[in-house]
Amino acid sequence: MWRNKLRSCLRKIFCLDKFGEVPTLDLIVQKSESYEGYRCDKIAYQTLPNNWVSAYLLVPRGLSPRPAVMCPHGHGMNEKEGVIGKAKFPGVPYARELALQGIVALAPDNAFMGERHINHHGNSGCMVGWARLNHMGQDLTGLRIFDLMAGINLLSQFPEVDSARIGCVGLSGGCWLTQVLAAIDPRIQAVILSGFFTTFVQTIWHGHCVCHHPHGIGLVCDLPDLSSLIAPRPQFIESGVNDEPYPHEPAFSMVYNAYDLLDSSGNLHLHRYPGGHMFHGEKSIPWLVKTLSNSISED
Hints:
By secondary structure, the chain is of the alpha/beta class. Helix content is 31%, strand content 23%. It has one domain: 3-Layer(aba) Sandwich (Rossmann fold).
């Protein structure tokens, strides 16, 4: 019962119902490039009137259908170009690495970032987006989650994709979006959370991008509650030993208790890697490939 109540509260906080029903999408393929082991399509699709999502779709060569993964990006990481390895990125470009290991990967630009960025009088795209949406009674994270949910719909349309085996991976701000998406949408079967697995009081309480401040979320939950809502689905947390602004405790212990309560502690994994704010991937990527290739229990 608490799951349904919290999901309902989160949908209200992120104003998801104000965006309407998540659409079935038509896409425009703008460019297609071949790489060793996979094809990379630059695509665009419309989720709302005047709201076009720019993205890369990476499709491995070989047998289909196969698992797929949503790959949201964070801040200051060259957006979708970073996660596919076309631009500088802190650590392993996870969309490209997944494609090389046989997983279909969808890497979209977040609303008001990347090709969707708007700079008005020096304000960041996030600030402009948050202000405009807030003025209309909507939420920036909510729009980004809505776009990601539409991305799941898009992946599910492709004959190359097994729609029962869709995961999500994110670093930093992409970790935040992954955590929220999986908490709300049970179609996400497994996640990698990297570089933002912590608590509100240890991070955004001290000031962070406005896109991490949905109105009133602190009244109903904390970040570990989102991961507890994902339980018992498989979840892998990466945390850099030197990534001091984003401590993994006490969040991990809190989430472990939720998994233990559901007799699923074996589905929760932690890798403390040497390094700072980056996507490590050495253990998490092979884990996700294996997890999505096996049978996944329903939430």
